[in-house]
Amino acid sequence: MSKRLSGQLVIATHNRGKLWEMQALLQPYGIAAVSAGELGLPEPEETGETFIANAQLKARAAAHAAQLPALADDSGLCVEALDGAPGLHSARWAELAPGGARDFAAAITKVERALHEAGAVPPYRAHFISALALAWPDGATEVFEGKVHGTLVFPPRGTKGFGYDPIFLPDGLLRTFGEMMMDEKQAIPPDGMPALSHRARAFQAFARACL
Questions:
Q1: Catalytic one among 74, 165, 171, 183?
Q2: β-pairing, 70-79 with 8-11?
């Protein structure tokens, strides 16, 4: 049986966009969340061969260092015509810009160039995947996964999201993630219906088990 979570939680990320989304998802449950960045925790090297493995690695490192439960996300964009790339390397496709931020505009250009070089033709099928891992200081860990399918659009549309959001158009919708406000993209619908985004879908499974 899953442990129930209450009190303080470390969100094992240095990514502001992920932090905002996770804090918004946790807010209705009264969980006080602090980020690994705010605690000055180092970012562990992501050496896992799956999204789940990397999420577990990050969550366990933060839980051990802070001696608090820690929640980590490992997520990425997987493009069918690129054999699943950028996938696990989604963040690494965005090179560090001055100041330490990731340049996802350059990463989006890289995706478009790779599609052209591969001879791919629209629609460019892709999916976002999010793996969440909750780790406890005693080493216990639970994992949850969410996925959303869609197509890639060029040029990018919208400035409201982060990462690859401006080029991802979810199936059945007319706006990219980059054109949606966070409370729309991350909304948890009633009656057990699936959430819209990959991270919110993984969070739904986490909330059912642990909140």
A1: 74
A2: parallel
- Where do runs of H (alpha helix) occur along 67-168? 104-117
74 catalytic? Reply is yes
Q: Can you tell me the distance from the alpha carbon of 161 to that of 159, in angstroms, rounded to the nearest whole number?
A: 6
- In tens, the pLDDT along 92-150 reads 999 866 666 789 999 999 999 999 999 999 999 999 999 999 999 998 999 999 999 99
Partner residues linked to 70 by β-bridges: 10, 135
Q: Which residue carries 């502001």 as its tokens?
A: 16
**Topology given in CATH for the domain delimited by 8-210:** Maf protein (3.90.950)
pTM equals 0.90
So where are the chain's domains?
Answer: 8-210
Distances (CA, A) of 115 to 38, 58, 80, 149: 38, 31, 10, 18
